[in-house]
Each structure stands twice: as C-alpha cells, then as structure tokens.
Amino acid sequence: MKHTLRCYILIPVAVTCLSWLTGCNKDSANDIAVTGDIRLNARLLHHTWGVPYLDAYLKPNATSFPGYDTSNYEIHSKADNDGNVVFDQLHPGNYYLYAKGYDLIWGDTVVGYTPIVVAEKALTNHQLDIIVYVSE
User: Fold this and answer.
1) pTM surpassing 0.85?
2) How is 8-55 classified by DSSP, letter by letter?
3) For domain 38-133, which architecture applies?
4) Domain boundaries, the chain
5) Which of 38, 43, 79, 103 could form a disulfide with 54 if both were Cys (CB 3.0 to 4.6 A apart)?
6) Which of 55-59, 100-104, 124-128 has the lowest mean pLDDT?
7) What whole-number distance in Å separates Cα of residue 107 and Cα of residue 72?
8) Angle at the Cα of 96 (from 112 to 126), degrees rounded to 5?
9) Is the separation of the CB atoms in 50 and 82 below 8 Å?
C-alpha cells in the first residue's frame, strides 16, 4: 500500500518536472526580427526650401492622421541639413508621416503630415521618394 501511494505521487511529479525541463522554451538566441527592405526618402519642404533638422515620425498601419502626440508614432527620425529624412527597413503598407520643428529661415514652428502608401509597384530599387510640405 505504501509503494502504491508513492507511485501515485511520484509519477505525476516526475512527468511535470520532465515536461517543464523539455517544454517549449523561447530561445532568445534564435529570435529573428523581421524587417522589410524598403527605404522611404522624404523631403520636408517649407515653401520652396528644405527645412533642416525637423523631427519626423512614422506610424505604420495607419490610414488616418494619428494626431500631434508623438507617442502615437512608432518610428522617429531627424531630417538632415537639407530637410531630407530617411526611414529604412519598411514593409509595403499604409503609413502616416508627421513632421514638426522650427524653421530657422522663416523664424517659426512648422508642421506637416501626410498619408503614405508604400506599394511595390511605386518603388524604384526598393525606394520611395516623397515630398512633405510643412507650414506654420
């Protein structure tokens, strides 16, 4: 009777331990981030000139303006000295771009936003070039 009781307790404990040890564990060394191969080149223009160093925010899977709160956007980049901003490793889909900052030439804060559809047929060498107008 004593052996039988031990078996009833020992077998489920052993099976539980064995399944825990050999169970499906997520191996972080094998995690692979899936990134796209599309580059978005945006030119941020105020009137006719590129506005340097504007902050640009990109929201994937968006078809309507996410708003002015930058925490609504997943991707951030900064324009270069000529008002050009680049977003790399994108996938085809719908995006919304929002740019804001201070235009030193105009002397005022400027903002601009636009929807973007990244489609394979619109790409040249896996790149999409757009112009985003900003204003005060």
Assistant:
1) no
2) HHHHHHHHHHHHHHHS----GGG-------EEEEEEEEETTEEPTT-E
3) Sandwich (2.60)
4) 38-133
5) 79
6) 124-128
7) 27
8) 110
9) yes
